[in-house]
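User: quick one, sequence for these tokens?
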């Protein structure tokens, strides 16, 4: 089975991608990258918001990177192609993917794919999502579940790619063990480890199946969280409430559910 992976290879995504590469021999990785944005006029409030968010995100990523420091992009043992993320949905991107003749297209930290792209693979297009769809679709979904103290929906899922944002049938859901003192970084790490264990199992089932698993249909619309919704004010408010004891984490058990 030929697997083509599209990923920006953030620290947590490299862990999942590495497990796919370890378990399957015929894998090509399209390592997408963002080109520098053109500078626009400066608005002071936007500047403070963006600068503050970048600092907090960097601190968050440092904590995650310490756990996954051994999984470097250059250590991924497969064919690798660097490609601009903004061009993945263009004719150039489609031509590249078609030339690789994928049976399965797998994404982890990738742009929303157009129908012309996710219909290219022979079998399926599958996404690795750090959030519990349909309740938490889009960006920063682990954070928003914590923010709303919705601990039953802290986790991730593996789903088919369809039209829309994280709306395809779900093949598996993972919920990390939540313990006292766990924050966003710790739960990101725990969720990553569960997804890294689950994704190869799903791909293995698809490889052996005569009939493609249908998965669990998302009956609810849920909510699509945009990256712009997580402002510096929201982060500071959450940190303040947590520090003051108004955001007490409830212990939950680790759980993996398959819908195949």
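Assistant:
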């Amino acid at each position: 089975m030929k697997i083509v992976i599209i990923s920006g290879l953030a620290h947590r995504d490299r862990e999942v991608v590495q497990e796919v590469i370890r378990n399957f021999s015929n894998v090509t990785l399209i390592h997408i990258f963002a080109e520098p944005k053109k500078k626009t006029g400066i608005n002071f409030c936007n500047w403070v918001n963006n600068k503050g968010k970048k600092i907090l995100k960097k601190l968050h990523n440092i904590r995650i990177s310490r756990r996954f420091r051994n999984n470097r992009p250059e250590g991924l043992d497969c064919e690798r192609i660097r490609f601009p993320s903004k061009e993945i949905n263009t004719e150039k991107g489609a031509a590249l993917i078609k030339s690789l003749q994928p049976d399965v297209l797998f994404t982890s930290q990738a742009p929303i794919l157009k129908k012309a792209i996710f219909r290219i693979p022979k079998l399926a297009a599958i996404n690795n999502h750090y959030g519990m769809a349909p309740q938490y679709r889009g960006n920063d979904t682990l954070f928003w579940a914590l923010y709303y103290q919705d601990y039953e929906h802290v986790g991730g899922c593996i789903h088919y790619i369809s039209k829309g944002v994280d709306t395809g049938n779900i093949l598996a859901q993972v919920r990390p063990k939540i313990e006292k003192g766990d924050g966003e970084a710790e739960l990101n790490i725990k969720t990553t480890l569960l997804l890294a264990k689950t994704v190869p199992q799903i791909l293995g089932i698809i490889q052996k199946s005569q009939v493609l698993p249908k998965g669990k249909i998302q009956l609810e619309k849920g909510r699509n969280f945009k990256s712009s919704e997580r402002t510096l004010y929201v982060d500071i408010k959450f940190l303040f409430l947590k520090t003051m004891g108004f955001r007490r984490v409830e212990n939950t058990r680790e759980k993996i559910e398959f819908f195949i």
